[in-house]
Amino acid sequence: MVRVGCHVSIAGSVDRAVERALERGCDTFQIFSSNPRGWKSRELKSEEIAAFKTKVLDAGLAPVVAHMPYLPNLATPKPEIYQRSVDTLARELGRCQLLGIPYLVTHLGSHLGEGRSGGIARFIRGMDHALAEAGGTTMLLLENTAGTANSIGGTFEDIGDILEGSVHKDRLGICFDTCHAFAAGYDLASEAGLAATIEALDASIGRERITLIHLNDAKGACGSRLDRHEHIGLGNIGEEGFRRILLHPLFRALPLICETPVDARRSDAENIRVVRVLAKE
């Protein structure tokens, strides 16, 4: 059986996320530990930390995953934004440690036209500083991107270079996003394309580094660089594509987080149900 869940809100108190995950039929779930669209975060109260840990344990949901806010950019050449980004990463790692969350997912940012090599160097330097400052045991998961202009992480080679350059390799893993990979040109919709993608992963990263899957269909075509998520099976990867993905030993052994839309066509719970059906066939 696959272990599948979705992203849920912490509105009201972080422990409320556990109840929302259970309502949606999750085995695992993802949260933002703070405001995803701002730089500031409120301090976590001791009682909500305790309640979160107790509810997670009682519910048997695992693993719990946190996601970095959207504003930080560790590849930026702008000094003020760069420093705020490094500080935010260290803070979020610390919040995960307090909450007992084992994984924090981060986007790799944009070099803003200043060049790939400089962006990657800045990312490594800032990431390593934040990991050292935060300490703890939370693993940082590097998420592949859709290959939009000036972004870092649209190729597996980008991620491989970051892993190679870091002094904290033991604290790093990979979050593989299916929509992003497809948009970046990795053809997950076909049998041959899936095999080629896994071969490319092995060559640049090593499949043993893949820790988490963001399971999302894609509104755009393969190689479109369009970062638009779609319901599982209703986009351009399609039902057959996801059936192959979910029956592959690499993917079905890992926790799956859906970041799919919520609209009149489907809810989070319905996408989770579709994943389970496809994984059985």
Overview of the structural elements:
This protein has one domain: TIM Barrel. β4, α4 (116-134) and β5 (139-143) form a beta-alpha-beta unit. Helix content is 42%, strand content 14%. The strands form 2 sheets. An 8-stranded parallel beta barrel has the order 1-2-3-4-5-6-7-10. A two-stranded antiparallel sheet has the order 8-9. By secondary structure, it is an alpha/beta fold. The longest helix is centred in the first third of the chain and has 21 residues, at 79-99.
The overall average pLDDT, rounded, is 97
What's the story with the biggest beta sheet? 8 strands, parallel, barrel
Q: Indicate the overall shape.
A: globular
The number of helices is 10
As for the CATH topology, it is: TIM Barrel
Short description:
This protein is an alpha/beta fold and 281 residues long.
Identify the notable features of this structure and list them briefly.
alpha/beta, eight-stranded parallel β-barrel, 42% helix, 281 residues, two-stranded antiparallel sheet, TIM Barrel
How would you summarize the topology of this molecule?
Blueprint: E1 4-7, H1 16-23, E2 28-31, H2 46-59, E3 64-67, H3 79-99, E4 103-106, H4 116-134, E5 139-143, H5 156-165, E6 172-177, H6 178-183, H7 191-204, E7 210-214, E8 217-218, E9 229-230, H8 238-247, H9 249-252, E10 256-258, H10 268-280
Parallel strand pairs: 1-2, 1-10, 2-3, 3-4, 4-5, 5-6, 6-7, 7-10
Antiparallel strand pairs: 8-9
Helix pairs in contact: 1-2, 3-4, 4-5, 8-10
